[in-house]
Amino acid sequence: MEILLVITIFFYMLSTAGYVAYLFLQKDYLQKIGVYLISAGFLCHTAWIGYGIFQSGHFPVNNLHQTLSMAGWTIAGVFLIFHFRFHLKILGIFAAPLVTLVLVIAARLPSAPYQADSILNNVWLVAHVITIFIGEASFALACGVGLLYLLQEHAIKSKHHGFFFRRLPSLDLLDTTGYACIVAGFTMLTLGLITGFIYAKSVWGRFWSWDPKEIWSGITWLLYAALLHQRLTVGWRGRRAAIMAIIGFAVILFTFLGVNFLLQGHHGEFTRL
Amino acid sequence: MTILPEARLKSICFKELNYYINFNTQSYLRIRLKSNMLDIVLLGLNHKTAPVELRECFAFSKDETSAVLKSFQESPVISEAVLISTCNRVEILMATEDKSNAVKAVKSFLSEFKKLPVPEFENSLYIHNGDDAVRHIFRVASSLDSMVVGEPQILGQIKEAYKIATLKKTSGVVLNKLFHRTFLVAKRVRSETGIGDHAVSISYAAIELGRKIFGTLEGKKVLLIGAGEMAELAVEHLIRNRAGDILIANRTFENGVALAKRFKGEAIRFEEIADSLQIVDIIISSTGSTDFVITRNQVKAIIRRRRNRSIFFIDIAVPRDIDPEINRLTNSYVYDIDDLKGVIEENIEDRNREAVKGERIVDGAVIGFRKWYENLDVTPTIVALRNKIDGIAKAEIKKTLQFLKHMSDDDRQAITRMTNAMINKILHDPTLLLKSNGRHQDKSVYLDITRKLFKLDE
């Protein structure tokens, strides 16, 4: 069944090519092809993950290969939802290559499960993993939108309307989409933390155990909470919100990967090679 | 014994065929010599060849156009004519059998009509024939020849001119076809290239920028400081884009009130500007003030109160009204007149790049039109007609003879001969009619109908 993964990556790559062509040539049909291809890739990917669950009998986040594959899958899924909700055509130029990159890295890692782990059948744990992943995928998109915002703002402020000015949508649309991504991401992250606490309580008898992953997740949560708070009270929008979204995603990347590799903790097995 | 009559019969057959071939080549030569075919000739002047005074003088109103076309109709050398007149150009398209005399006739007619001696405008005129004329009208309609490349009005003006010509019945088969092609080409150039994209006027460039900042201009509040043609034009554009309330500040309050009435807005006093910044989104400034009307500190003070909503300043005044430092503040954007000019220059460069693609489409279309036009000649039509009928006859003979195996070779020859004779007899009258030296305008009609009737253009 490895062929499914290859087909998936193939679709994602083609979608990336479609979006790159759209960026340069600005023909609407290219963007549509990009969406269809990433949708096709997403379906194959779903089948691949479904097959994995069927084979092993538990949720496939048992090693870095599976975890990355799952991360790519949620980014693709969340991207499709946001795409059809906001019609931000150019967003694919960020999402498609990201998903492709994540999957290519995943495919190059050994796929043998580290251990057949019964804890992965716990409903709270599965809920925890799914919500966290969707949340982080939303933040990834928020980061992408933030980057596009900074590019467009630079084009307008510098008054040299180069390559990006025409190709990117209005600042307002970018800002609104970024905000929606962060609201969605924050909601899912909160749910993810709650389900995580419940799971921790049921397994270790305590909600919080000062695990590095927990600490960094807390920091991430506080960061986005601060961003949302500032937006709602004093109207933090535009440039500052975009920069915060990018910083936030950097912290997430560290929490997601950095903590596991650099620090010790009870999340280690999900990213073992 | 059987060989002789057969050879004789064959030679008769050949004779008949030769008769047709000779007939055709002879008539072809005759047509060429007598130049029986209509030529397309274009005569005109535009912003590149004629100064504005001359263009003004040569502008034709609708009624004048009708009158001119009518007198062209009476001229024996002009078969078809269409006259296009805009503020930047006058173009006269003709189908004529006598190029030089037609041009002469038009020149002297223009001189008479506009009461201007020929030498005074002759040097500003350009005259194109055949392909060049076709290319010229394609380029003009596609707005590749316009002062501002890609401006959209010209196509409508040409359509209007063509409509007058059809009403006056001065446009015939040749020009009808040419104009229909022209409209198609213009449409293709517009939709397949970016020739009409992006603003090339100051006020429109400002609107486009506003759209890149706000997404939609709907409901955005506008403050107009001062007055002036460009600023007012920008406000009109904004209103057309369904902008929200319009505030108008003028040093002379009465002037502000008058403008406010025109834009259905509200006049405010000059001292109220600083406070109004809190509620407006787009500020257009065009005053004669030598100092900044809005300073950085004023804007900085209201950003927080605006909850960081974007604010866009369009400074059309020289010297400037808006402190350029405001552009550095978050979510504040300032464009002065030079910035806007820079944007327009970029856009014009862009259009010129797209125009190259347009030229390519035009080149292809000229070749396409030439094909149709050449086929409108007598000889190709007769040859094509004959080939078509011959082809049908041959196919049918072959089909029939397949089932008549018992027939001798002689019998088969006889059937073939009979069929050929029938073809010749049937085509005799139509061929004569097409070749007749009757009225030429009618001839192109018959040729066109023949080609359609027998589907010769496929």
Helix proportion of residues of chain B, in percent?
Answer: 55-70%
General form of chain A? globular
Q: Overall 3D geometry of chain B?
A: elongated
Number of domains of chain A: 2
Q: What is the terminal-to-terminal distance of chain A?
A: 21 Å
Largest sheet features of chain A: none
Number of helices of chain B: 17
- The helix tally of chain A amounts to 9
Order of helices and strands of chain B: HEHHEEHHEHHHHEHEHEHEHEEHHHH
Computed CA radius of gyration of chain A, to the nearest angstrom: 19 Å
The level 1 CATH classification of the largest domain in chain B is Alpha Beta
Count of individual beta strands of chain B: 10
Kindly give the count of domains of chain B. 3
Q: Level of helix content of chain A? A: over 70%
Overview of the structural elements:
By secondary structure, chain A is mainly alpha-helical. Chain A folds into 2 domains: 1-113; 122-273, no CATH class. Helices cover 79% and strands 0% of the residues of chain A. Chain A contains 9 helices and no strands. Chain A has helices at residues 2-25, 28-56, 64-86, 92-108, 123-158, 163-167, 171-204, 212-234, 239-262. In chain A, helix 3 (64-86) runs antiparallel to helix 4 (92-108) and helix 5 packs antiparallel against helix 7. Chain A is globular. Chain A starts with a helix and ends in an 11-residue tail after the last helix. The mean pLDDT of chain A is 86. With 458 residues, chain B is α/β, with parallel strands linked by helices. Chain B has 3 domains: 39-193, Glutamyl-tRNA reductase, N-terminal domain (Beta Polymerase, domain 2, 2-Layer Sandwich), CATH 3.30.460; 202-342, NAD(P)-binding Rossmann-like Domain (Rossmann fold, 3-Layer(aba) Sandwich); 376-458, no CATH class. Helix content of chain B is 59%, strand content 12%. Chain B contains 17 helices and 10 strands. Chain B has helices at 3-34, 52-57, 62-74, 99-114, 118-122, 130-141, 153-167, 173-192, 202-214, 229-240, 253-262, 273-276, 296-303, 337-375, 378-402, 409-435, 440-453, and strands spanning 39-46, 78-85, 89-96, 126-129, 222-226, 246-249, 266-268, 282-286, 311-315, 332-336. Chain B has a 6-stranded parallel β-sheet. In chain B, strands 2-3-1-4 form a 4-stranded antiparallel β-sheet, sandwiched between helices. The longest helix of chain B is centred in the last third of the chain and has 39 residues, at 337-375. The two termini of chain B are 46 Å apart. The A-B interface holds A 152, 156-157, 159-161, 165-166, 169-173, 234-240 and B 198, 209, 211-216, 304, 306-310, 327, 330-331, 333, 335, 339, 342-343, 346.
